[in-house]
Kynureninase (Palleronia marisminoris), 394 residues
Amino acid sequence: MTDFTATRALFDLPEGLAYLDGNSLGPLARSVPDRVARAVREEWGRQLIRAWNDAGWMEMPDRLGDRIAPLIGAPAGTVTTGDTLSIKLHQALSAALTMTDRPVILSDTGNFPSDLYIADAVARQAGGELRTVAPEAVAAALSEEIGVLMLTEVDYRTGRLHDMVALTARAKSLGIATVWDLAHSAGALPVDVAGAGADFAVGCSYKYLNGGPGAPAFVYAAPDVAGRIDPSMPGWLGHAAPFAFEPGYRPARDVARFRVGTPPVLQMAALDAALDVWDVADIVDVRARSLDLSERLIAGVEAACPDLALASPRDGSARGSQVSFSHPEAYPIMQALIARGVIGDFRAPDILRFGLTPLYLGEAEIDTCIATLAEVMDRRLWDDPAYRQRQAVT
Ligand SMILES: *Cc1c(COP(=O)(O)O)cnc(C)c1O
């Protein structure tokens, strides 16, 4: 059983803050600053170029992939890290499209815009198109016209959870390749990419994996497809022998061919330290506690704030690790909440979003959130021009 008092002690959170936005940017693990300082001072500062070999910099993308793999049900050697999620998604979709003669990607209308922009572009470049349907209509829209199914398992706005096992199985039976975006799944709930039979999966490490702003993304390729990938971005570090400097591209083994260029070593040092929490935390326990905390938040807000409408599935098994409420004045309401030390976020057009992250969050923060939200609503504290000023990041 995971000791959540112990995991919380591993994070450096400001006193007096209820942080319910770890689904957007995970907090700082206490081990990160020293690990990054060591990478800067000792590895870069003293070892200089030798650190690529002596400090293991060159293996970092794959070593970190192996650390993330158990959290998503991937075998060792099937996950690598680097770049950003948008780039890894582009690579995975391009690879998936080369495995079908049907250049049609199916996704849902609730998917994250970056995912849809990229899917639309790669499908058109392959001579086909992106089709989107409502999230509930995905299963029925799978047909032999579709080549690739690309879904984000947990909806970033509502937290709605797709049935990854059932949808992947149905896609497979129709010869459709699958690309799953685990941005709001990895570190939030158990995922079994291998068990589900997914072909590709991608995700970011700055949300529930706490890797820090700009932390590298991860990409999974199933063992049976990895060796067939003809990478759309055949960079030198995805070559079988980068330092042979051959004029022609020869792909690296398996998923390593999704590596592109020089890894962001300092970001990777931060992620490496942040992942240590998973040595003492079990994702099954995290999921159970996240559901308990979510129920507490939903019950409390519904009792205290009748004007807020639950925008997430009520059934916990159909929800990721976030709870959202809608209100026409969601933006100023969230600003008023943040000004009072309760941090969630706003998603256009009308969503108040709260991330439940048991590694460092408990009943006390949930109760503070409910009480503060109730006060903001009851006393219309949000109705202040200062809270209507839209900032670049919401
Ligand atoms: C967070 C998120 C992204 C962000 O992509 P980056 O390239 O890391 O900026 C993309 N897709 C989904 C579904 C996300 O939740």
Notes: The chain has two domains: 4-30+282-388, 32-279. The chain has 14 helices and 13 strands. The pocket of pyridoxal-5'-phosphate is lined by residues 84-86, 112, 114-115, 152, 156, 181, 183-184, 204, 217 (CB under 6 Å).
